[in-house]
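Issue 218. Parser rejects a valid record. Input:
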Amino acid sequence: MTTRVLLIGGTGLIGHLVDAALATRPDTIVTSLTRRQSSGADHVIDFEHLCAAPEATLQAVAPASADVAISCLGTTMRTARSQAAMFRVDHDYVLAFAIAAHALGARRFILVSSVGAGGPGFYLRTKGAIERDIRALGFSRVDILRPGMLLGHRAQARPMEAIGQRLATVLAPLMVGRLSAYGGIDAKTVAKAIAGLVEQTGDGCRTYDNADLRRIARQAASR
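Output the parser choked on:
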């Protein structure tokens, strides 16, 4: 049976790895939605139009139906330059995509969030808000990934994140117990976990920390 996947954030650190992994599966059709062309397989859409008319905008470029929707979309304050602009990307664009995917028949949604989502600070409050609003849409299954510091090379340089990655590597031996959820995790591991979750069945809402993601990635690799 063919699985139809809708993906946003497919040009980012995790998203491009997810896109590549799923593209190798003969039983999976991936429609990757981007704000700018990065490969011949991308479908460029205006995300402001998506917010204004979610279903109509997505239906113009996506299949008539979908099974799974995946959001790896996210930005930083440095890139967005304001809290309002960052919220627009990390919350509004993701929510509009989810609304449209649900309208097109997707029963499952996979969301890349962050460890500490819902906690203090603008970034974590934003992540908590999108988690809450995705849950409320009525998907049969919602998988929420809460990775710690993402490790890997980005096409777009993020100097502060690069410093954080080096620090996470140095501190890795100390990140044990509850602290392990805040430690570094390779973006490839997160992407493998997402690819593994696409194959899973069952309903409900689940959240995954670093340990969960590593376990799912190992299971997916062993199949």
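Fixed in the parser; the record now loads. The two ends are 18 Å apart (CA to CA).
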